[in-house]
Amino acid sequence: MRAFASLLTATLAWSTVVGALPWSPGRRAPSSLALRDISSSELTAAHLFQRDTTTTYTQADADSLTAQITALGAQHASIQQQLISLRKQLAAIPSTDRIAMIPLRRQWATAYAAYQANTASLADAKAQLAVVQAALAGQASSSSVASSTSSSATPSSSSSSSSSSSASSSTPAPSSSSATPSSSTASSSSASATPSKGLVQKWSGANFFDGWYWADYADPTHGLVTFVNQSYGMANKYAYINSNGAAVMTMDRGNSWKAPSSRNRSSVRISSLQTFNVGTMIILDMNHIPYGPGVWPAAWMVGPNWPYSGEIDIVEGVNSNNQNQATLHSGGGTCVRDTSASETGAGQSWTNCDSSPTGSSLGCSVIDSNTASFGPNFASAGGGVWAMRWDATGIFIWFWSRANVPNDVKAEQPNYATWGTPMGAWPASGCDPTKFFKDMVFVFDITLCGDWAGNQWVWENQSGAPSKYATCAAAIGTASLFTNAYFEVNYLSVYNI
After folding, report:
1. Is the pLDDT of residue 242 over 60?
2. Could you tell me which of 313, 327, 275, 283 has the C-alpha nearest to residue 438?
3. Which of 34, 300, 417, 469 is most buried, by CB atoms within 10 Å?
4. Residue 340: CA atoms inside 13 Å, Cβ hemisphere, count?
């Protein structure tokens, strides 16, 4: 449903303008660029075992790698600033002036390729540093044991045999396991520090807001909000980490004024700088979803050149609905929801997912039968967790209220084979997930009114607003209506599957 505005001329124009850029058309663009910084604690045990155990490393090797990491980090920041500058230049060019955009788009493509290469080099350097540091620790251990053994030996020839026997029984010669990390020891220590197998990204805690682009423009779905950049948003508490370590994203919920007026409320819309493709699984844990009259939040994924690279709406709804609506949007070919697929949700009658001008669909949706999957009931139940699996067999979404989250998900070792029937299923038999969905970013946003929540029929029949507000626009000046318009996110994890 987030695609409503994309069916309109303005959004389609944006789609044409930025179709080749690594974020979604007219919806997302960079302001705070920072791809994931891979730390040594996230390295798998394989990194330790791949080293040549016959190589002797020195502290100079570690120092050299540290200097290399520092230089790559500086380069990383420089390229980020270049991307920000190019993005602002592109945003300043009228959407009709495609010729002027060509050189900037080429510069962006070059800079973004350099950014990705730099990120990979930085990760490799950190991985190698971890290897060297492990080797140095092993060498120090080996040297210490060898020294202890040597000091216990007596040079006297008459006692050498006795000494040798004594040394053998009381001070064993260093085995390979004491000189270098053994397979079992390394695996054990790594298991406590290394994320679950397949984990490629996790946003949580103090670092949740790293690696996102913050939109700073009007809502392309015609919502009555203006999205703000990171510095303004965090300074005004539209985004922050609360005392429980959860990420909160909200909007201007104060400052009542007489409506209707030309004023929009400030809000937040962030999209990941990393892109994801088929073979991805999402785990999203939230305590609270924005709700209230005219409130329209979503947690979703989208590719460039909408709708031809697809859109997956994992969490979406309006007003104070208590049931989540998950939707797929595609473009450029036959993509339908196979109604024979097993699912616990209620598949809607519009099964065509093609949201392109020729398809003319609003997407293919499934409404969760769980009446605590959205809105006030979701909050009352303590929140919950979604999982989205996207592989060659299709796209599948599960939801669990807080009390029913599977143990494997809690342990961050998700195993979809044990989860049973999904809430929503879009198998490859109806829509090829390798063809219609690609290079997707993850997005959180909150808008007001707009093409869905602001639809007059929806407003009159589903908003739950006092009758004195004849339209959604008439209500936005009343701050008390938006008390619950905020996300509270424990974590968002992305796995390769």
Report:
1. yes
2. 275
3. 300
4. 4
488 is catalytic: no
Cα 233–2–446 angle (5° rounding)?
25
Q: What's phi and psi for 423, nearest 5 deg?
A: -65, -45
8 Å CB contact between 209 and 230:
yes
Q: What residue type is assigned to position 150 of the chain? A: S
- φ, ψ for residue 337, nearest 5 deg: -85, 120
Q: How confident is the model at residue 101 (pLDDT cuts 50, 70, 90)?
A: confident
Residues 6+ apart with CB under 8 A from 240: 234, 247, 248
d(CA 429, CA 427): 5
In the numeric block, the tokens 């009259």 are attached to 293
Q: What does the block give as tokens for 288?
A: 């609270």
> For residue 155, what are the contacts with CB-CB under 8 A and spacing of at least 6?
none
pLDDT score, position 123 = 66
Q: Is 412 labeled as catalytic in the residue annotation?
A: no
CA distances, 418 to each of 254, 396, 414 (Å): 45, 14, 9
CB of 247 within 8 A of CB of 239? Answer: yes
Is the bond into 260 cis (omega within 30 degrees of 0)? yes
CA distance 308 to 205: 34
Task: Dig out the tokens for 471 from the structure.
Answer: 């339209």
Assess whether the previous peptide bond of 30 is cis (omega < 30° from 0): no
Residue of 42, 316, 343, 488 marked catalytic: 316
Q: Are 267 and 446 in contact (CB under 8 A)?
A: yes
- Provide the mean pLDDT of the chain: 79
Partners of residue 269 on adjacent β-strands: 445
Q: Check whether 78 has a pLDDT greater than 80.
A: yes
Residue 10 binned pLDDT confidence (cut-offs 50, 70, 90)? very low
CA atoms within 13 A on the CB side of 42: 12
What pTM was computed for the model?
Answer: 0.64
Share of the chain above pLDDT 70, in %: 74
Q: In whole angstroms, what is the distance from residue 136 CA to residue 41 CA?
A: 17
**pLDDT given for residue 15 in this prediction:** 30
- The answer to whether 299 and 314 are in contact (CB under 8 A) is yes
Residue for token pair 């030996």 = 153
Q: What is the 3-state secondary structure (H, E, C) of 21-55?
A: CCCCCCCCCCCCCCCCCCCHHHCCHHHHHCCCCCC
CA geometry: angle 260, 264, 267, nearest 5 deg? 145
Q: Active site residue: 311, 412, 460, 488, which one? A: 311
Pairing mode, strands 225-227 and 265-267: parallel
Q: Give the long-range contacts of residues 191-197, CB within 8 A, separation 24 or more.
A: 191/45, 193/41, 193/42, 194/41, 194/42, 194/43, 194/44, 194/45, 195/42, 195/412, 196/411, 196/412, 196/413, 196/414, 196/495, 197/44, 197/413
The Cα–Cα gap between 430 and 472 comes to 37
